Every structure is written in C-alpha cells, then in structure tokens.
C-alpha cells in the first residue's frame, strides 16, 4: 500500500450531518448531501478538515414542498407527482412524492443546485433518477405522453404495448432532465467563475432497477456529454434481493452483487468517465444484526473487486449511522453500537480500497468469461403483477426476475466469469464486443431498440464469436409496436430478425449453426425455466459447453469450479460459492495478511468453505524493504531516518488504530505522540515475514509514531 493524495479521489463517502470526529473516515472526498441553509457551513466544515468536497442531491424526490405548493413560480405542481393506477401518489415520505421530471421541475432543480455552484463545489452528484413502473397516471405524465407520442395517453397497465411505451417515455424524461440541468449549470459555472464543474449520477444497477420495477436512464446517460461519471449504488440492500436458482428462492448476496457490479462497469468501459463502486457496512433496513451486516458487507466488497476495470469506491453512505448508530443485538435484548472489531475491519478494508489501482491482474486458475447481453429495455417490460403473468409464471417469478437469473446463475455458479454486457452499447462503440468470444442472449425479457444492433452482432459472429440464443418466443411484449413488426417485412419477434441477419432464415430448430468463423447455438426454452428446473439449467450449461467445443481452431475451455481467486497486485480476492459444481473447500497456501481480521494476522493456510469470502495481502509480492501493508488509518508522511522511520496516522475517534509494515529489521522502541500523550506504543514483530504490527488509538487530527531500530 502506498500513500496517495486526496486529489486522486479514489475513495469517498456521502454524509448529511455536519462534520464529527467519530465518522471522519479519512477518505479522499466527501459528498455533502442536500441543499438547505446549512449546506455552505457543512461544506466549509469538511473542507477545513482537508477533504475535497462534492455535493449530492436527489433528482427524483426531495424536500420540494415550496415547488409543489406554488411558492416558487406561483403555480402548484402536485400534478407532477408520480401516481399509480389507483390515483395514489408514489411517495418517499410525507409530502415527499417521487416526481415526473417535467421541464418546470428541471428548471426548479437547476436553480436550487446553482447555489451549490456558487458555494464553490466543483463536483455535483445527481442521485437516483427513478420513475416507478407502477407510475404513469398523473396529469403531468399524460401531457408528456401526448407530446412525445403524438397520440392520446393509454393506461400503462392495460396492454403490454402501453406498459412498454410508458416505461420508455419515463427513461427519456429523466435523460432530458439530466441533460438540461448539467448543460445549464456547466455553462453557468464556466461563464460566472471560469470553473469546469463535474456532474456524476449515483444510480442503482440496471439489474436491480429492473428487478425492483423502477425505470431509470442507465446507458442512455452515455449519450449525454454533460455527465462525467457515476456511482454504482450496489450494497447489501440491493444484492440480498431474493432470486431463484434451481427452484430455490433465497438471498444470494455475493452472486447478485457480482452481476450488479458487472453491468455497472459497462457504463464506463471504453470511455474516459469515472465510476465509483459503492459498499455499505450496513443497509437501509435497520432490523438486522451487526453480524448480518458484516457478513453481507464482505460479500459485496469481494464481488466488486472481481471487476478490476474499476478502482474507485464510495466506501460508505451515511457513516454517521454506521459508527454512531445502534442495531439489534444477537440475543435480541436491545440494540448496540458497532462492535470494536467490525469498526477496525471496516477502516482496514476502506483504506485498502484506495490502493486497488494495480497494474498486475491475474486469475489464480483459468477462468472463461462469458457475456450475457442486457438492455435498458428490460426495465420497460416490468408489468405489474395484476397483468397476465409471463409464460405461466407466478407474481413471485415476476418479482424475482427469473428470466435473467435463469441465464446468469447456472453459468456463474459453475465457475464461468459471467459479465453482463450492455446490448445498447454495441451501436455506441464499434469495438465494444472485441473482448468477448462467448455471448448469451434472450429477447424474452428485453428487446433490441434498433435493428442495426443485429448487423453488428452478425458481424461479430462471422468473425468467430459464439452466440447462444435462449428463448421460445412466448413473451407477450414481442407484440408491442416496434421496428420488427411495423414495416413491410414483419417478424413475430426480434429473434427472427436476428436469425435472418445471420443468414439462417427466421425459423430454427434447436442446435448449433456455423456462421462464418463463428457459431449460433439456439435453445428454444424460456430462460425463466432455467431458474426453476435443474434439468433446464443443465440443458443451458450443456449447450454452452457444446458451442465452446464446436469452433474449429479455437481452444476455449470451461473447467467447472465453485471458486474465484483473483490477484490485483499484492491483493488476493477469493470467494467460494455454495449450490455449485461441488461443495469442496478451497485452500490458499502462502504468506498472507488477512484484511478481514481486525488483528491483521499473518496466515499461511486459509480454508474457505462454500459461502466464504476473503481479502488477503500477499507478502511475497512486496518489493520494498520498508512497506505499508495495511492499516485502519490513513497513513501519511512516511519518512525513513538513520534511526528508523516515522509516519502520521489519522482515523476516526473510538476506532482502534492498527498498522502492519514490512521492515528491514526489528524495532527496539516505538514512540507514539498525539495532541495529548507521548507514550511508548505496543507492537508485535513477526520474524519470518519481517513485519511489524503497531496498535494505537485513532485520532482524526493525527497520531505521530516514531519507530527506532
């Protein structure tokens, strides 16, 4: 681990409360949340503590009562609240409805945020552009429908076509809103202050929004020049959403997070935009115990680290509720503050995350990557449960979004590195598919928004790609008014157009077809059945294996396994899945520091059972004789002297400080000095690894430690 400057903005957190030393996490930047009369003072407090300060505010809901009640422009705006088919407002709280992003609403938000530009922030995060699928019944939305489609509004719940068109409009409205706001404020900052201001969008993943039945712009944001990047809002609360695998419905936090982080990296892959991956040490639901939070937090951290294209992280939303909050005890006798060990582990991991920009990336074992194509239009097909169920499925099946997980989990659980791939990006970036040899596709839960996607897919197959198509054509949304059924040449589904683009005609039987140097494999089953039936999951796996083995002159091998082990520089990230190819443990041998242990112990043999995850530091990767390995503090001003070395450690109050260094020799004495004490520090020396472990009390103002040989 090396010292970094805050200007790199590798790690940050969001916080609504004023500065307090108990949650001064010593990240690179802080996102001050919310625009009110206290905002300028909160910005100043955090800036005075050395932070780069951003601002975050919501764009779909907030304390907008003045706007709603007509105090802003003399016109009431309650007709712009998102409303369901029963006529009820969809709300985030009392008098806090989710909003239809009209032009007037975008103007209102722009003026509110202009205050933050005047306050000096150079980065603004416009959080969670969300339009609920069950919405679409307010007067404002009806007006937008008539303007956009040039036809009378239709109740979204009545037909698949109305549902699809309503959701597509919802995505457009928030895209328009963000474009308007960012363009206006970037020009204002440049003209008024000659400053280049940055705009980021913290957003849930396409996978989560689709499962939760929310519409958001997602990949449409790539078309907006005013957007500089994103925060992938993935955490225990999204990743523990139940899904179905081989007929069993339950939480699968690691696997779900793995897929969620995967689709989010597609918003920046091949661009110069930034992405921060979010983790949350707890979650929005306050009913769980600290043990539950800790186990799920580690699963999300490990899942995120298997995506090495991303090396920036939001390390904590709302640290005040983590480090000062109380949650249920394991014995159910009241509530308790964060356990000391968990607090220390969190700080160790958070500072390690700031060191993940590593050049050397390597899987321990051979792992084959496969892409599962996923489009924004998946959000448009999330009909409400009262409508006809999809392919005979139940309301739970709809909520679980089994068609997607039916494709993803059977492959991921058997050791394929499953990467969700943004179908819409194929036409944005000419070389977008170059990194993939195997893609899985189904139009039973999403649709291609333009026919030219198939030209690019066909060329990719001709050049040697392996495309596995899974679908039986039963999805009712095949009949929506779209490009594949509106011209002279009408197709029953977009899959027919795809097959024809590959030169195979429109009607295929199950099997593999040679297309140029590549293969199309066709499996005529509904992907949801692969979630519910082990036989169908095996059928999918067998088709992938057969297709891989049928390409002449190309050696692709899928070695089924239950584990992933990745090296990012000196860091070793490992996860062992349950419900997998086998249930055997995985043993890692070597010389490591366990970063998921508050004592930062040296370990030589780690046994990981199914369900276990780990983050290790490989001591054999150290190249310097004096090297910081891990710490629960921000370590600064490391300097070597003739007598030893010294450094400054900064961390939040009430969190135990610990740091492990590689040293050229055993220290004789360590002195620790803060603004109150000057004492001899406790330390442990491990001779075989030549590492030093020091313990101290964290302090955000800084603890000065001097090590004497």
UniProtKB/TrEMBL annotation:
Top-level taxon of the source organism: Bacteria
Name of the featured protein: Beta-galactosidase trimerisation domain-containing protein
């Amino acid at each position: 681990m090396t010292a970094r400057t805050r200007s790199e903005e590798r790690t940050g957190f969001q916080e609504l409360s004023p500065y307090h030393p108990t949650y001064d996490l010593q990240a690179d930047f802080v996102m001050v949340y919310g625009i009110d009369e206290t905002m300028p003072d909160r910005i100043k407090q955090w800036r005075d503590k050395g932070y780069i300060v951003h601002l975050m505010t919501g764009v779909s809901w907030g304390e907008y009562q003045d706007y709603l009640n007509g105090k802003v422009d003399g016109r009431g705006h309650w007709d712009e609240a998102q409303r369901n088919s029963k006529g009820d407002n969809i709300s985030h709280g009392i008098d806090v409805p989710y909003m239809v992003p009209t032009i007037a609403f975008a103007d209102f938000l722009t003026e509110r945020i202009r205050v933050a530009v005047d306050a000096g922030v150079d980065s603004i995060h416009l959080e969670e552009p969300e339009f609920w699928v069950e919405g679409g019944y307010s007067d404002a939305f009806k007006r937008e429908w008539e303007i956009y489609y040039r036809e009378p509004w239709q109740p979204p719940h009545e037909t698949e076509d109305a549902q699809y068109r309503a959701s597509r409009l919802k995505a457009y409205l928030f895209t328009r809103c963000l474009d308007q706001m960012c363009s206006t404020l970037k020009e204002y900052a440049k003209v008024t202050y000659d400053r280049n201001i940055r705009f980021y969008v913290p957003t849930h993943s396409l996978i989560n929004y689709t499962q939760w039945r929310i519409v958001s712009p997602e990949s449409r944001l790539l078309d907006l020049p005013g957007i500089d990047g994103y925060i992938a809002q993935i955490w225990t609360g999204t990743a523990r959403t139940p899904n179905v695998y081989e007929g069993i419905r339950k939480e699968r936090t690691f696997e779900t997070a793995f897929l969620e982080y995967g689709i989010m990296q597609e918003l920046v892959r091949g661009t110069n935009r930034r992405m921060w991956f979010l983790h949350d040490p707890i979650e929005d639901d306050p009913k769980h115990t600290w043990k539950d939070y800790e186990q799920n937090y580690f699963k999300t951290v490990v899942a995120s680290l298997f995506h090495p294209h991303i090396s920036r992280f939001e390390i904590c939303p709302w640290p005040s509720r983590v480090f000062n909050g109380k949650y249920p005890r394991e014995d159910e006798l009241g509530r308790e503050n964060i356990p000391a060990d968990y607090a220390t582990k969190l700080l160790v991991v958070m500072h390690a995350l700031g060191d993940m920009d590593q050049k050397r990336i390597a899987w321990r074992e051979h792992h084959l990557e496969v892409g599962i194509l996923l489009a924004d239009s998946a959000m448009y097909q999330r009909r409400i449960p009262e409508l006809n169920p999809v392919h005979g499925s139940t309301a739970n099946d709809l909520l679980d979004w089994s068609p997607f997980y039916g494709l993803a989990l059977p492959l991921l659980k058997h050791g394929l590195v499953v990467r969700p791939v943004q179908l819409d990006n194929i036409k944005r970036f000419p070389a977008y598919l170059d990194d993939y040899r195997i893609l899985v596709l189904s139009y039973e839960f999403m649709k291609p928004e333009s026919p030219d996607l198939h030209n690019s897919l066909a060329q990719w197959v001709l050049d040697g790609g392996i495309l596995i198509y899974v679908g039986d054509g039963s999805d009712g949304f095949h009949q929506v008014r779209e490009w594949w059924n509106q011209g002279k040449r009408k197709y029953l589904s977009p899959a027919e157009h795809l097959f024809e683009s590959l030169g195979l005609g429109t009607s295929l039987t199950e099997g593999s077809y040679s297309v140029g140097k590549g293969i199309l494999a066709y499996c005529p089953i509904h992907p949801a059945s692969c979630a519910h039936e082990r036989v169908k999951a095996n059928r999918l796996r067998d088709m992938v294996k057969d297709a891989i083995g049928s390409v002449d002159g190309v050696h692709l091998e899928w070695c089924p396994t239950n584990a992933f082990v990745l090296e990012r520089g000196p860091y070793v990230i490992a996860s062992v899945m349950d419900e997998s190819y086998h249930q055997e443990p995985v043993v890692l041998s070597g010389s490591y520091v366990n970063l998921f242990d508050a004592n930062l112990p040296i370990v030589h043999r780690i046994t990981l059972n199914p369900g276990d995850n780990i983050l290790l530091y490989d001591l054999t990767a150290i190249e310097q004789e004096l090297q910081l390995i891990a710490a629960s503090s921000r370590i600064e001003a490391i300097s070597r002297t003739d007598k030893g070395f010294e450094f400054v450690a900064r961390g939040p109050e009430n969190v135990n400080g610990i740091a492990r260094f590689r040293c050229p020799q055993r220290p004789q004495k360590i002195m620790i000095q803060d603004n109150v004490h000057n004492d001899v520090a406790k330390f442990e020396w491990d001779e075989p690894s030549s590492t030093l472990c020091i313990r101290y009390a964290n302090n955000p103002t800084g603890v000065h430690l001097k090590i004497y040989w």
